[in-house]
Predict the structure.
Amino acid sequence: MKIKLSGHHVEITEAIKQYVDEKFSKIASHFPSLISLDIILSKEHGKFNAEISTKYEGRSISVSANDGVMYPAFSKAAKKLDSALSHRKGQLKDNLHSKPEISSPEIAHEIIQDMNLR
């Protein structure tokens, strides 16, 4: 999975890149068809904000989380992304297992009445 990490008022260091790769490796193993993540880390008013956007199975999914410390912001965003992807995966599987429509069965006495038995 390709991760594009960018910062706004934050310098992206090698340690941050390693943490992000480690944090999102679980998501990559759970959702192998996930191709890329766009992550923007910003700092405004003393809080770190992590915004993640991706496309999964034809739908755009975006999540964001903020915290006073950078690493918990990533953790919260990763948890939200995992939840959103699981929800989308459930929607897709639900469509595969849709129940067949029930047609009204013919009633035996209606069939007998339509027959000319005399």
Notes: The chain has a mean pLDDT of 82. The longest strand covers residues 47-56. The beta strands are 2-8, 36-44, 47-56, 59-67. The longest helix spans residues 70-96.
